Amino acid sequence: MPQIIDGKAISAQIKDEVKERVAELAAQGKKVCLAVIQVGNDPASSVYVGNKKKACAYVGMESLAYELAEETTQEALLDLIRELNAKEEVNGILVQLPLPKHIDEDEVIRAIDPKKDVDGFHPQSVGALCIGQPGFVSCTPAGIIQLLKRSGIEIAGKECVVIGRSNIVGKPMALLLLRENGTVTVCHSRTKDLKEVTKRADILVAAVGKPKMITREYVKEGAVVIDVGIHRNENNKLCGDVDYEDVAPVCSAITPVPGGVGPMTIAMLMYNCANSVSR
Ligand code: NAD
């Protein structure tokens, strides 16, 4: 049987480390504060925002919640971001995505002060990651690196294949694996013969957004398989991009859904926030 990579346990460990760091900062008279902005009331976003508030409370950070109406104008949202950029007591600013259609997400992300860009989506943060300079890193891929490292999985010199090239998962994931000295290939919807490429992977990261698409035909025997996907099936049960039952018997390690990559995203958000204080 493969090693089951336990995202619940590893994320709890990271949150406890952050809690200690926040207490140390408090002892030096420094508070940590995250501002979370939600526009509209998309139910999934409300759940994510609620979980972020709970995580802040757990690690001892303050959180400011801004729940804005669906019809909020882009200018009003940008004004709020500018106000939070200027507030010294706010260390991190997070705008919950997706935003309503009338708001330009790129412009909103660009408005966040890169020193407070705890989601790591600002072009300056992405650029810093690309050229190996310090900066915030997108939480989900940063969490995956922690999962691998804390599970004793070596990345250096390994063939790493990432399926998906989104700005929030696939691309930063590829850059992080490269930073860890992996040999990295990125696949996407236009990749020819996907299976032929994914079968080369020692470490396969599926961020494709298609339920259970990755079956054992895509996986080399003994590979490490990381499943980023989150979907609800017809019975309202969570599943990933990987067909877990089919793939688990042939791989050496795998993340389950739920309890794999999912819990890492918020843990890394807390980590980024605590780190923003000393910047
Ligand atoms: P996305 O839709 O933005 O990107 C999907 C990528 O997959 C695209 O780059 C596309 O080129 C590629 N793709 C689509 N079909 C393909 C195919 N048939 N063959 C090869 N490549 C194909 O999605 P995303 O935002 O990167 O998210 C990916 C998945 O991860 C989703 O299921 C999402 O819900 C999940 N997700 C989870 C977390 C978490 O915290 N666990 C965070 C973000 C996203």
Structure description:
The termini are far apart. 42% of the residues are buried. Helices cover 40% and strands 16% of the residues. It is of the alpha/beta class and 279 residues long. The longest helix is centred in the first third of the chain and has 21 residues, at 7-27.
What's the layout of helices and strands?
Elements: E1 3-4, H1 7-27, E2 33-39, H2 43-59, E3 62-68, H3 74-86, E4 92-95, H4 105-111, H5 123-130, H6 139-150, E5 159-163, H7 170-179, E6 183-187, H8 194-198, E7 203-206, E8 224-227, E9 231-232, E10 238-239, H9 244-247, E11 253-254, H10 262-276
Parallel strand pairs: 1-11, 2-3, 2-4, 5-6, 5-7, 7-8, 8-11
Antiparallel strand pairs: 9-10
Helix pairs in contact: 1-10, 2-10, 6-7, 6-10
Bound molecules: nicotinamide-adenine-dinucleotide.
Nicotinamide-adenine-dinucleotide is lined by residues 140, 163-166, 168-170, 187-189, 191, 194, 207-210, 228-230, 241, 261-262, 265.
Concise synopsis of the structure shown:
With 279 residues, the chain is of the alpha/beta class. It is built from ten helices and eleven strands. Helix 1 runs parallel beside helix 10, helix 2 packs across helix 10 and helix 6 packs across helix 7.
Which secondary-structure class do the elements indicate?
A: alpha/beta
Strand content: 15-25%
Secondary structure tally: strands = 11
What's the helix count? 10
What is the oligomer described by this structure? single chain
| Estimated helix fraction | 40-55%
What is the mean predicted local confidence, pLDDT?
A: 97
* End-to-end gap: 43 Å
Low-confidence stretches: none
| Radius of gyration, CA atoms, in whole angstroms | 19 Å
Order of helices and strands: EHEHEHEHHHEHEHEEEEHEH
Taking the sheet with the most strands, its summary is: 6 strands, parallel
Coarse morphology? globular
> What compounds sit in this structure?
nicotinamide-adenine-dinucleotide
Widest sheet: strand ordering: 1-11-8-7-5-6
